[in-house]
Design a protein that fits this description.
By secondary structure, this protein is of the alpha/beta class. It has helices at 39-43, 46-56, 65-72, 78-85, 123-128, 139-150, 153-158, 161-166, 173-180, 198-209, 229-236, 251-257, 263-279, 299-308, 331-340, 348-354, 361-379, 383-386, 388-396; strands at 5-8, 14-15, 98-101, 186-189, 217-222, 240-245, 283-291, 312-317.
Length: 401
């Protein structure tokens, strides 16, 4: 990714890839933003060059910490996956070959482990739930906390205007991506929810009209709540297309985590995607699931459901924000999970990560409880009624939600 990739973030910032810590900055050390800076200029940024040179020298640049942490705990990192997938890909000086893109926060769901940069459906929760019991804040979290206390909710929503401008249909970012299209070999598209982002699929359609999609690979992540025949026809024209079903649980647990989705409708769409795969050899499916303190105890149910449909599951082990990292759980709870999955080879990597160490787990657990209770109150939901077995284990070990 240092040589061939770019990661366009929900916020309108740009990174080397979606797992990077650092955003690209200008000579004044201010972050580039797509509502005011040109994507072509950002590609030439000093930040990118510095990270690239460090990696070439074998230096573990802080930008790539999430991958180093994953590798040190025995888990395959995004860095390793991408290096293997695109081994031998020749870079181009003027543009990337791989585009990882999260174009804004337009979405139809307010998922528990998501954030306001990725979904506009979490504005109310983010505005109301700010006072973390742990007292652990990153700088931008502190700034948001102070700002939210001073302004009305309507004014709070207006603070996302620059993000909306970064990806509106008239922004020059789409022109730059059009100009890069012929040299791009892979798009990886995330949300928000891509299936509600018209400018995004308009861009893909233009690439298709130019004849570029026949030599391009596509990955598109969807929460599977929407089926669009028009967009499906575009997807079918790529050299290869992998549709990532962003689903963390099944049944009522899915509905709790992926509010306000309805499982029966999503299940119906999943079967449509399966049929699409069977009729198109260039299309594949996988489940892209986050592993977090909500679903970790019931991951076997998720695996069993999709194993029946012959769909591979790719688990993303959340590390940021820390209060959704499964390593925050008490030792006795970890032991119960490890015991439950002791004969599940498909979940061995989850158990390995679960039992690795992190900083301040007890403090981050307090934040998890705070956000869960607060969201339950706002949405009139109850964790214990949806996860009764796991809730009993938590309560027995002092974790009351």
């Amino acid at each position: 990714m240092a040589n061939c990739g770019i990661g366009i973030e929900n916020s309108g910032h740009v990174k080397m890839c979606n797992a990077s810590i650092d955003v690209f900055k200008n000579r004044k050390n201010d972050p580039f933003r797509l509502d005011k800076d040109n994507l072509q200029d950002i590609w030439y940024s000093n930040t990118r060059q510095e990270i690239k040179e460090s990696l070439e020298k074998g230096i573990r640049h802080e930008n790539c910490r999430l991958c180093w942490d994953a590798e040190d705990s025995g888990v395959t990192s995004i860095r390793q996956v991408l290096n293997k997938t695109f081994e031998g890909l020749s870079p181009l000086k003027e543009q990337p070959r791989i585009v990882i893109m999260k174009p804004g926060n337009q979405c139809n769901l307010g998922c528990r482990t998501c954030n306001v940069e990725a979904t506009n459906q979490l504005y109310k929760i983010d505005y109301e739930l700010n006072e973390r019991p742990s007292g652990i804040y990153k700088e931008h979290d502190k700034e948001r906390l102070v700002a939210n206390k001073k302004i009305s909710f309507d004014d709070y929503v207006k603070t996302f205007e620059s993000q909306r401008k970064s990806f509106n249909k008239d922004n020059a970012v789409w022109q730059t991506l059009d100009a890069w299209s012929e040299g791009i070999v892979h798009y990886a598209l995330f949300g928000g929810e891509p299936f509600v982002m018209k400018p995004l699929f308009d861009m893909l359609d233009r690439s298709d009209v130019k004849g570029h999609t026949s030599s391009q690979d596509l990955y598109v992540s969807t929460n599977a709540t929407i089926w669009s025949e028009k967009y499906i026809e575009i997807i079918k024209n790529f050299k290869s297309a992998c549709i990532g079903l962003s689903i963390d649980a099944v049944g009522k647990q899915f509905e709790y985590m992926r509010y306000p989705a309805v499982w029966s409708k999503v299940k119906e769409n999943i079967l449509k995607f399966v049929d699409l795969r069977e009729k198109n050899k260039n299309i594949s499916l996988k489940v892209s699931a986050t592993c977090n303190p909500f679903n970790v105890y019931n991951l076997d149910e998720l695996y069993d459901f999709f194993n029946e449909l012959n769909i591979m599951i790719d688990i993303h082990l959340i590390q940021i924000p820390e209060h959704y990292d499964i390593r925050i759980l008490p030792l006795a709870v970890k032991d119960a999970i490890s015991k439950k999955f002791k004969d599940r080879k498909d979940l061995s990597h989850v158990v390995t990560f679960l039992n690795s160490t992190m900083d301040n787990p007890e403090a981050h657990l307090k934040d998890f409880i705070y956000y869960t209770q607060g969201t339950d109150r706002i949405r009139e939901q109850k964790f214990g009624s949806v996860f009764p077995e796991f809730n009993e284990i938590l309560v027995n070990n002092g974790v009351v939600i």
